[in-house]
């Protein structure tokens, strides 16, 4: 075959592929429009009946019933209240997972919406108001809609889509396990094992604008706790004991210095915050113990390890100087969340199509917020993106943020979310490993 003919046939193949994808996009548009009102209704219903982390019984039942009605294989009780639905296409192929979180927060709703929550529930021994103040009602409704659209296209799908509805993204109640980690332990990522997982989050911003990055987008979150022990003494004679109050002050200053002066903050940003200091009961007793608690946020695993080393070395050294003993504890809340660059590149046309005129920003600012989704991404590569969801968006400062009692979404984001989930899944299944 001549070079010219090879070229022509390659172009023709490309055109045919593109036309196929275009025809599919038009078909998806129709199916998304058909399911849109239903998704809005689900979102309002879930919004009006919010449930706290690990208590998502009603929501999980709604999800499971819907997935069963679509003919999916459904597993319930995965990681407490989690639901996993498996959609097998007509032909075998790759396996992709789509994830939504289902839990609400102990926040008293002040949106004034006709379907605002009046729900209260027990949390940490107290009765608290409950609200979907982070938009997980939208995520759940979006994924239910995506499942419906994809189930309706089963005959055209080569491959498998796994729908993961997870509890406790905001963290399980004190003393309980839960969230992505527990779902994984309970087999959410096996039978079948997905090759990749996609997740999204609504946030104040232009409706449909997609924020994503080739790499880290959200920080890791590590709890830090330092327990100091020494000899209690009279405040008038500090030399007879151990001055843990002065030691605490030195540790606070040292940790701020580490995060600002001993690592390259232009390379990878980080924050080390001590936000809780407990020492002493009255002004003339130097206490025999003290506790400092805080959080570490950063955007790479290496940086986190380095910060831990530096903190350990500094606290040990300072404690020795004072003749005290120190115990440093780190507890991982979440790891870095972001996108696998190769997979993101392969599904970028789908994201652009879903975002439409609002566009995709691949240079989106890093966020010092953490996501439980990172536990899935430790097992398999993922893509995580944020969709702007504010009616008449002006700026972030004047828009109630996630976790605010006034947080709300423009419901147009629901159809955009469904489209994004469906198109990215289809594009991944079409692409070569
Ligand atoms: Zn949240
Ligand atoms: Zn959230």
UniProtKB/TrEMBL annotation:
Domain Peptidase M20 dimerisation: 222-319
Entry keyword set: Hydrolase, Signal
Signal sequence coordinates: 1-23
Keyword Signal: yes
A Pfam family matched in the record: M20_dimer
Domain of life: Bacteria
Keyword Nucleotide-binding: no
Protein name: Amidohydrolase
Native source organism of the sequence: Steroidobacter flavus
